[in-house]
Structure formats: structure tokens, C-alpha cells
Design goal:
The protein has 13 helices and eight strands. It is of the alpha/beta class. It is globular and about 55 Å long.
Length: 297
């Protein structure tokens, strides 16, 4: 991410989420909410023009075709990933957890939607100041920031998570929480990932849960794999990927930091859990990212 500028990756993911509803078959995967589109418009005039282009019936299918040609299945993976993470967070709330911490929240609407629908919950989003400023303007334009959602502008590269949460209004470290880091760890150096996991364990009470995504190193060995091409595009946008891990190594990493892996989801798992029940068709989905769910021991 370029210093002092809102995240370009957060913008691209938000555009994917909002505009994928233009494909009628995928609409069950796209949440109905006003926040993401408002955040896109507040990002920049360029972002607002991009949104209009994606929503224009004349240019929409050209853009869809180009995206699927160069990055086949990437758009659908993002939708499946977001739906799976949202379902897991709701399941944790239904099980009695009442606090949500979203690290690197970007322009995602998960916390805003949950706080809007469930006033008994509390959530804290952590993001860099430039991106969080866009998020705050977007939520305000879409009806206001829910009173139980706290937007924390911080830089986890310099400010430890433990310090941020210790100063977070209303956060209760003695009560379980669910921490989400979706599409974040891949942009950190290995040492920063280690530090973040250690801080998360120190900050969270027993009974807490963590959900995070990470790049699977295996497909990246092939420079022609769509995931490897996507990484080169991210680098050209000033947001290079620094960290990846092979699927078989995640259990050891999380155990070392005091977590117990409960699930690990890739394309095959999300086809069964999300795609088939909601869409009922076998579309192509890009491999390359995995979702880990773990409990605080």
C-alpha cells in the first residue's frame, strides 16, 4: 500500500463484491447492503467512474470477460470467501461470542451489517488512516456508522495489536471475541505475521476464535498460474504479496502461537459449503488462497 493513500486492493475487492451481482446466477452470494458502494464512491472520483462502468449494461460484460480471461474464477472466489467468513462469524455470535475485531477491514461491510442488524454486538475495525477515512465517509453517506461499531485508524506495522485493543473503547479483554483478518496477512512480512499472531493470542480471552486467509504457496510455484498473475498485478498497484504458506504447514504455525485449528477451507470446501447450496452450479473458482479457522487455547 502506498503511504498516505487508501488501499487499492480494498477498492478492487469492494468493486468485485458490488458488481458481481450483475451476474444473475451469483446474486445469492452478494449481500444486499448500501455500505460498500458508498465506500467506493468516497474512495476517489476514479473509483466512482469505475463503479459506473461496471454497472453500465454496455460495458459490464466486456469487463467481466476481460477479468475472467486473465484471472479465471477470481471474482467468484472472493464472493465465496466473503460469504464463508460471514457465515463463520455469525455462527460464533450465535454460540455466544459478542465481540468482533476486524484487522485490515478495508471497505468490507461485514461489521457494519452485523452491527446494524444486531445491536447487542460490538465490533472494532482496524485499518490504516487513509483507508479508514474513506470507510468513515462511506458509512456516513450510507446512513451513518452504527453506534456499536468503532473505527480505529492504526498502523499494525508500528502499533501492536495488543496496544490498539487496550485503548479500544468498550473492548473487554476478559470476554471472548472473534478476530478476522481476511486478505491481510499476505501483505505482511513473515516477522510481522508472527508478531500479529502472538499479539492476537495475548489480546484474546480463552474461548475466542480467529479467522484469517492466507496465500497457498503451492500454486505460486507456477508463474503461469492465475494466482501468480494476480500477485504480479498487486505488485504493480504498489501492494506486493510478501507471505504465503503451504497448506500442510498451517497447523504447526498456529499451534506454536497458542491456537487450535478447527477448519481449513479452500476451493473444494467452499464449493460444498457455499457454492452448491446457494448457486447450484459448478463454476470455475480460482485456487490460491485458503481460509483458516482456529480457537484460542
Amino acid at each position: 500500500m502506498r503511504v498516505g493513500e487508501p488501499s487499492e486492493t480494498a477498492l478492487r475487492v469492494a468493486l468485485n463484491t458490488v458488481t458481481s451481482g450483475g451476474n444473475p446466477a451469483w446474486r445469492p452470494l452478494v449481500p444486499s447492503e448500501p455500505y460498500t458502494a458508498a465506500c467506493i464512491r468516497e474512495h476517489s472520483p476514479r473509483a466512482a467512474r469505475m463503479l459506473r462502468s461496471w454497472r453500465n449494461p454496455v460495458t459490464r460484460w466486456v469487463l467481466y470477460g476481460l477479468r475472467e480471461h486473465y484471472f479465471p474464477g477470481s471474482a467468484l472466489w472472493i464472493l465465496l470467501r466473503k460469504r464463508a467468513v460471514a457465515d463463520a462469524v455469525r455462527a460464533a455470535f450465535d454460540a455466544g461470542i459478542g465481540q468482533l475485531v476486524v484487522v485490515g477491514a478495508g471497505l468490507d461491510s461485514l461489521a457494519a451489517c452485523l452491527c446494524r442488524d444486531r445491536p447487542d454486538l460490538r465490533a472494532w475495525e482496524l485499518e490504516t488512516p487513509a483507508t479508514m477515512m474513506v470507510k468513515a465517509r462511506g458509512l456516513s453517506a450510507a446512513g451513518g456508522v452504527p453506534s456499536n461499531l468503532y473505527l480505529l485508524a492504526t498502523d499494525l506495522g508500528t502499533v501492536p495489536l495488543t496496544e490498539t485493543l487496550a485503548a479500544a473503547p468498550g473492548f473487554d479483554p476478559s470476554q471472548p471475541a472473534i478476530l478476522v483478518a481476511e486478505g491481510v496477512l499476505m501483505y505482511l512480512e513473515s516477522a510481522a505475521v508472527t508478531r500479529l499472531l502472538g499479539d492476537a493470542r495475548a489480546a484474546l480471552a480463552p474461548g475466542s476464535k480467529v479467522i484469517f486467509t492466507f496465500m497457498d504457496a503451492a500454486p505460486l510455484d507456477n508463474p503461469r498460474h492465475p494466482a501468480a498473475r494476480a500477485i504480479r498485478v498487486l505488485e504493480s498497484l504498489g501492494e506486493p504479496v510478501h507471505w504465503s504458506l503451504r497448506r500442510g504447514d498451517i497447523d504447526q504455525l498456529l499451534t506454536r502461537h497458542g491456537f487450535l485449528v478447527s477448519d481449513l477451507w479452500g476451493v473444494d470446501e467452499l464449493r460444498q459449503r457455499v457454492l452448491k447450496p446457494l448457486v447450484g452450479a459448478a463454476y470455475r473458482v480460482m485456487e490460491g488462497e485458503l481460509i483458516a479457522l482456529a480457537d484460542v487455547r
